Known about the structure:
Blueprint: H1 3-14, H2 45-50, H3 53-66, E1 71-78, E2 81-92, E3 97-98, E4 105-106, H4 112-124, H5 155-159, H6 180-189, H7 205-219, H8 223-235, E5 240-241, E6 256-259, E7 262-265, H9 275-278, E8 281-282, H10 284-295, H11 311-317, E9 322-327, E10 340-344, E11 349-353, E12 358-366, E13 369-376, E14 381-387, H12 394-408, H13 420-432, H14 449-452, H15 455-469, E15 472-475, E16 479-482, E17 485-492, E18 495-503, E19 511-520
Amino acid sequence: MSKNSLVKAIFLTVCFCTSNQAFTQTPSSNPNAAYQPPYFADADRAQKIQTLFPLIEKIYREYAVKNHFPGYAFGVMVDGKLVYSGGGGYTDIEKKIPATPNSMFRIASMSKSFTAMAILKLRDEGKLKLDDPVYFYIPEIKGQKLTKDAPELTVRNLLTHSAGFPEDNPWGDRQLAKTDADLIALIKKGISFSNDPGLSYEYSNMGFAMLGYIIKKVSGVPYSEYIAKNIWKPLEMGQAEWEYSKVPGNNLAHGYRWLNDAWREEALLHDGIYGAMGGMITSVESFSKYVALHQSAWPVRNDLESGPVKRSSIREMQQPWRFAALNPAYKYPSGRECAMASAYAYGLRWSKDCEGRETVGHTGGLPGFGSNWVILPEYGIGVILFANVTYAPTSLANIMVLDTVIRMAQLTPRQLPPSKILTQRRDELVKLMPDFTNAIHSDIFAVNFFSDYFPDTMKKEANAIFVKAGKINKINEVVPENQLRGYFIMEGEKANVWVSFTLTPENPALIQAYTIKLIEK
């Protein structure tokens, strides 16, 4: 039996698709109709995470003591559900009121993503555009620039901290109670720019106050009312307020500063226009419903919409729109070194490490408070931590918990099933290997293919690899990179054969690129 006949015989016995199961696609069909979303392959992942709850509680408790948190509350999210929560210490030291997942903390800059989501909702309704000049809504800023050749300041610049305003912590933290009129008066006097818009990332609380003003200008109601009605209410966030005086006394977390080995209470500020950047007050229990909304945006799929904002707009919020930093020597709390890139999204922070883990979330810090939430969209997990001490360093504790959970529960990201067209092209490609007889007439290759790849060369290369691999015992499924690109492995007696290919955007999609190589066992 020839090598070509041997491969064909093996293909017929081990291929996952039989001839009557083969995917047939005609040019008139929808090439995307058979899309399948990625899924979690480990059916026991939730149970594995559950076994770590005592350890998670211990990490938060010990971290809170070490960092002088008067009180704290935490939550663990899995697949859109608050699966574990707890707290410790006090929300009111004098009255000894325990901190719980129902205690309401001021979450500071974690408020920014609510403002950003409101802007995107108004955009989706056709009431504004992200690339509109800000002066459309705040005429008083028109003409204000650092340089004469600066571009117009846009709504998108405000969302991504690329407006050219100076970093304004902690000045902005003391502005919460300022009114709309105060903001406009500030703008009328002239803004001191640190850079031209669109050139660099620089964190601006004032920019988000302007977004709050734009929400009112476009919707006709204050940003606080718009967010409460259009985001909090649909999500049933019953424990959410902007004005601290509206929170029941036994539920309100008081803020403290650790000074001279003692806690000193910080004064709470009333709600104002700068609340759009950091004034929200909520509980872990209520905030978890917002985190669930962000988790529900993944994976991309064909389900009907069910949230107050489109899933695509939530995913848009989470994308890295403005590069912030690269830390090549970043270390996880465990001591593992792993380079980390970070960027700002829309009211959210984004990062990606050397292992490909992507995180989305935000920190918050005000006099009296510190908070953080993080999700890993492709892992389906997330954490929340609120504390009531000035600029509490909550993000490190959340990183510790997430890294511990991923490692100890051996979590992996969702797996994308191979599209039917990838599987079909794999089957057709295998039938031609290793001799590629009549490949030119097979109708599976794109118009460019035989100008870039030559049958005689392909035959020589493939035959040499198959000889070294020996008898082919198994042809594995395609491992997809996306719907139109992937690779598969043919397991040989002596070595394995690795084949990758990329398809065109045509209907039906054809093979435009191909690579084969030997993998020694």
